[in-house]
Amino acid sequence: MKQRFFIMAAAALALAACSNDDNQVYDGPVEARITAGLSTPTTRAIGTNWNADEIGVWVKDAPASDMETLYKNVLYTTTSTGATAEFTATTGQGIFFQDANETVTFAAYAPYQESDDNATLPGNNGKVDVKTDNMNTATDQEKIDFLFAEGVEASRASSTVSFTDDHSFHHKMAQLNVVFQTSETDGFVPDDIFGCSFNLGGLIHEGTFNVTDGTTETTGSEVADWDISGCKYTDAATKRTYSLILLPQDLTNKALNVKVVIGGQTYSNSDAINPNLQAGYTYTYTITVKKSGLKVSGCTITNWNAGSTGSGDAEM
Fold it and tell me: Is the pTM of this model over 0.90?
């Protein structure tokens, strides 16, 4: 009888302990969960979705804790190739909410730039160097396709940091598409241009990207003769299209020089190509290669966001 009493008492204590655990409120740090989407339409230089990317996340405002000091550049990664993805940090290396009642504001950028630790900004106080004339191959373009998102709020009780909708990632570089096409009536066939060299002059290729606010600056001087023959391109029928990622810069009072060398003869544009290359916009110029010159036509701006269009000739 005494033995039965002890067993019943032990069971009652165990039940009480379980009940207390169920009602206990955990007051320790809670890790932030990161989800991110690309601005509509969801286009990147390298495709239409995330591409197993790395992003840098930082705390922009934390009024009741030291999270702004602790988290200035935290690496989050995804294996997703979808339009919206969930990003995770290495175990124990993510962002943790420090205060039970604090609402924290976050920002993020891509691609991730290395720093000494989570509490250190990359580059020069957040400004990282950018050089576009040697990074426009198909394999390297995603390294300069800088994206930025900000304004997302989260807390320990609601720990998902959602960079979607109005707070999704936006392009902070500019894209220039240069389409070269031929016309048999003007003396050339596609094979004549597919194997020749193309040069584009008048652009500034050196500058910075600021991971803290998504802004860019040009710091170098104009390059007079940039060979784009090795840059990312696509061929279709009579056309070859070069898609270039560039630092935003105003060319409205200048002009880009296009040169095509075929059989030792140089053809250049006589019509001005002078867009204002703004962040997040893509600009398209179509150039018809003629023995009498190059004609620039149908400059359109499409999403990413829409920009200007133009046309003209390039002559021998």
Answer: no
